[in-house]
Design goal:
The complex is a heterodimer of chains A (about 240) and B (about 400).
Chain A: E1 4-15, E2 18-30, E3 35-39, H1 46-53, E4 61-66, E5 69-70, H2 76-85, E6 87-90, H3 102-112, H4 117-130, H5 146-158, E7 164-168, H6 176-191, E8 195-200, H7 203-206, E9 211-216, E10 219-225
Parallel strand pairs in A: 3-8, 3-9, 6-7, 7-8
Antiparallel strand pairs in A: 1-2, 1-4, 4-5, 9-10
Chain B: H1 2-32, E1 36-41, H2 63-73, E2 77-92, E3 95-104, H3 108-111, E4 116-119, H4 124-128, E5 133-136, H5 138-145, E6 154-157, E7 160-168, E8 173-174, E9 177-178, E10 182-186, H6 187-195, E11 202-207, H7 213-227, E12 238-242, H8 243-286, H9 288-296, H10 301-340, H11 351-378, H12 381-385
Parallel strand pairs in B: 3-10, 5-7
Antiparallel strand pairs in B: 1-11, 1-12, 2-3, 2-11, 4-7, 5-10, 6-7, 8-9
Helix pairs in contact in B: 1-8, 1-10, 1-11, 8-11, 10-11
Classes of the chains: A alpha/beta (about 240), B alpha+beta (about 400).
Amino acid sequence: MSLIQIQNLKKQYENEGVVTPVLAGLNFQIERGEFVAIMGPSGSGKSTLMHILGFLDKLSSGKYIFDGRDVSSLTDDELAQMRSKSVGFVFQAFNLLPRTTVLENVMLPLVYAKYSESERKQKATAALESVGLAHRLEYFTNQLSGGEKQRVAIARALVNEPSVIFADEPTGNLDSKSGLQVMKILQDLNDKGNTIILVTHEQYTAAHAKRAIKLKDGEIVEDALITNRQIAAGATDLKK
Amino acid sequence: MLGVIIGVMSVIIVLSAGAGAQGMILNQVKSLGSDLIGVLPGASDEKGPPASAMGIVVTTLKDSDIRELIRSGSAHVVAGTGYVKGTDTIVWGDNQTDTSFTGVNASIVEVENAKVENGRFFTEEEERSMARVAVLGSTVAKELFGEEDPVGAQIKIKKSSFNVIGVMKTRGVSGFQNQDDQIFVPLNTAQKLLLGIDYISFARLKVDNPDNVDAAMEDARIFLRERHKIDRPEEDDFSVRSMAQGLEAITQITNALKLFLAAVAAIALVVGGVGIMNIMLAAVQERTREIGLRKAVGATNRNIIEQFLVETVMITFIGGVIGIISGIFISYIISLVVRSLGYDWDFIISIPSIVLGCVVSVGIGMLFGIVPARKAAKLNPIEALRYE
């Protein structure tokens, strides 16, 4: 069974009686272990699609079945539960808590997943080690470079071992070298079996994925495997 | 937090100051004695002031009336004195001061519970012989003599020489009168030598027991009517008043004061509340993105509201404690300052003021902490994350 099944998914916003359609009946499936790039120009609905897939937003009509569960009928609390257990997010703007240490930021999802304090520390430390930030545990997030911030965000996204990691323009605020490091980490995670859904408008970034779903005006215009895949190498030394 | 501190603190200070002021006024009245009754010339009804108190000169009350009243008028009256007053520039050598002189009987010492600091008060004997002796209030003594000892000096009142025989102990301000800014001379001397009158303007009688005040007042009325040959009470040419009546009037004033202070305290609370509200609103707005992020990583609406609840309780609790401590401290400083100015001011912190201050501040803090947090928690996580 597929991890994600989308049938005729529609999303529209209503504002003062004016209905703006954003997604116009999408159909696709994503299997476990895939690395999918959702692509499209701004306004194509790719972010909205990611928000719906990541339980941050609700669909207007159609079906979304995640791991055999019909998401469209879930309550707010059940959606919070799904966000807590099944998905992790990496945002373009990092969205780390200021005035808080790196370790505490990564421990945050575990608080809501009800892990004990010692488990939280141990899991968060392990996640930070896997993104090469073991030496930054007690730093405050505002003392980090952009690349380091995004690696903290990745550690936070993978700390509760989610079924899918969503990355929304993860390299958008980074220089090319830091961006490459981030893509390398995502590829490494995918190699270890993690499902990754990447949202981007850059062809170059999308080329790191294995499959690309291209959107335009709320419709899928192309859904194909990536032939000449980029492998982010040469950025192996994460501690720099 | 500052809002909570200021709110709690101001309530405690205002209520403490109010209690202190009321205590001070009542203490002053009580220090005059609740076992005293006053006799004034001229008729009056219970509520209005007697004519004599409005500056109309009524000459019907004589020193002999009071002396006879004390001697045979009532079993309850143990002492009493008449009063006449005048003002003059008092001269000693090159020094002079404007003050009032009061002609009284020697028994004023007993009636007013007044004490002589230095020297002695004049005697019945000196009064009868129209002796030209004077006892100075402490303020007069200081103004006229400075550091020198006035006892034995000759001063001039209305061009007559008086021998200073004593200085009174400081008594402070009572009612509207500074008790220390006057000179006591024998009643007879004041009437005949200084003022040229044969009536008194006021008399005070001391009753053996505060419980007997009403009986003594009735005795005095009957006695004076008989002596003045008055048949009907409506024709009275005198008034008898008790301090209890004075106390009632003053209690009315202090109650008004209390109401005023309650209004001030209410304003302080509102100001504190608005402060708390602003801080909480700003905090929630500032943290809407944080709320969005927390929801994105799995927090439920309940988690968010609980978090803000705990934070608000902490802030208001800490603010409340600081407010209580600083409020008590500042109230104590105020009481020290007022006492050092010579007033009889009690340092009173009432438990209700602390409870009121805390309940309202914490209540407002919670309300304005929780309501915006609830609103933010209900936002779609994406909208919250994008909040600028």
